[in-house]
Amino acid sequence: MTDLIVEDDTDSELSGQRRGRLGRLYHGETGIDFYGRRWWGLGLSALMLLVSIGSLIANGLNLSLDFKGGVVWEIPSADMTEDEARGVLEANGLDGADARVQVQTNRDTGTRTVTVEVGDQPDTVRQAVQDAFATEIGVSTDEISTSSTSSTWGKSITEKAVRALVIFLVLVAGFIAWRLEWRMAIAAIAAMLHDVLLSVGVYSLLDFQVTPATVVAFLTILGFSLYDTIVVFDKVQENQHRYAAARMPYGDIINVSMNQVLMRSINTSLAAVLPVLSLLVLGSGILGATTLREFALALLVGLLTGSYSSIFVAAPLVAMAKEREPRFRGLRNQHAQGAELERLVLGGAPSGRRESRGRATSVADSPTARVVADGAPTAEAVLTHSPRPRKKKRRV
User: Exposed/middle/buried for 199, CB within 10 Å: 0-12, 13-18, 19+?
Assistant: First the structure.
């Protein structure tokens, strides 16, 4: 009686058509153990969130006058310095150290303008400072432009933005729970909040000014983060249905899905980041369109964090929640690695039993085992116990 050797066609095809690293990445044939490294990603996110929250508590946000209210004077002067502008404020009873003074030069006309911003002031103080700036540079008062914004306007806009954000999160969570499942909805919302909080933390750490354009960019980040996460979750659910008949650890489902969708996520991120870099470098840096800087910078940070969170935050959270189900509870820490994981990514059938994590099986131990080339589970993967031997019929 000879032993029955069953060879997997997928392994043979994998060894015969071995591509390089970039080739495997491009064709979605990588074998990266995302599930096994989940704590590295979650740990890095937790560290960045702690730094962001600490900076928000210690430093707060540098809000523009549109949110906190105040007065702005624009002085067309070719030689006025920041110290001279602060001196004019102090001469009129204002704190020059707390004022925000910027010197800008128009690239087209060559006009140099000194912009001075302070908190909300009465009309008498605003007019007195305007006259003082005109006297300092020797021009008429009409050439000094001034504008003021009430703090109540910024408060009203902030309340409406928060209300719209809450409604948006509730609707998105309900749709994902209906379309996919509630665990994925919670993970997607957590990834979105992760991206926004990190983006706001960067603005707090670097003391960038938050303007209405920045808020619009933050809301745009939510849409991109949600899109990338849904792409990943849709692939996870597809593979979950595909391997429903096999006793397969959920870590394998996560790893297979992440590797298959990795190149798509990278392409999506690059397609979104390149135009934003053009706005930031060409528009703001070279052409001098400073109004684009706040919008482009917030978008750039949000796009990078959104691509990161969809793979290293949202997917691990779903895996940790799904492993608590009775179906996957007994298969924890048994996910495939190395060549076995690459075989699964290419559509191979999962191994029936794994004595140790990541062990690949190519020789069947039972004569009833069969390997199906189209990716269906083997007989050993379906059977959880040895088949009962047939009774011999007695000849009469």
Answer: buried
Residues 145 and 170 both lie in one domain: no
Range of the domain at 259: 34-62+153-327
State whether 76 and 169 are in the same domain: no
21 is a domain residue? no
Work out whether the CA dihedral 345, 348, 350, 354 comes out positive or negative.
negative
Residue 304, phi-psi category: left (phi > 0), alpha (psi -120 to 50), beta (remainder): alpha
Same domain, 105 and 249: no
Strands 70-76 and 100-105: unpaired
DSSP codes of every residue in 46-98: HHHHHHHHHHHHHT--EE-HHHH-EEEEEEE-SS--HHHHHHHHHHTT--STT
Give how many domains the chain has, as a whole number: 2
8 Å CB contact between 17 and 27: no
Would you call 163 exposed, middle or buried from its count of C-beta atoms within 10 A (0-12, 13-18, 19+)? exposed
88 and 166 housed in the same domain: no
| Cα 351 from Cα 366, distance rounded (Å) | 13
Location of structure tokens 């992760």 = 194
219 DSSP 8-state letter:
H
pLDDT values of the chain reduced to their tens digit, one per residue, 396 residues: 333 333 444 444 444 455 676 776 766 667 788 888 888 989 999 999 999 999 999 988 888 777 777 888 888 887 888 888 888 888 888 877 778 888 877 766 777 888 888 877 888 888 888 888 888 888 888 888 888 777 677 677 778 878 888 888 889 889 888 988 899 999 999 998 898 889 888 888 888 888 777 887 777 778 878 888 888 898 888 888 888 877 788 888 888 888 888 888 888 888 888 888 887 777 766 666 666 777 788 788 888 888 888 888 988 899 888 888 887 877 777 776 677 777 777 766 666 544 444 443 333 343 333 333 344 444 444 444 455 555 555 555
Q: Residue 100 belongs to what H/E stretch? A: strand 100-105
For 9, 140, 387, the CA distances from 384, given in Å and listed in that order, are 24, 92, 9
Q: Which of 93, 121, 149 is the last residue of a domain?
A: 149
Rounded Cα distance, 64 and 158, in Å:
12
Kindly list the distances between the CA atom of residue 291 and the CA atoms of 31, 73, 176, 305, in Å, as whole numbers in the listed order: 44, 18, 36, 23
Strands 145-149 and 70-76: antiparallel
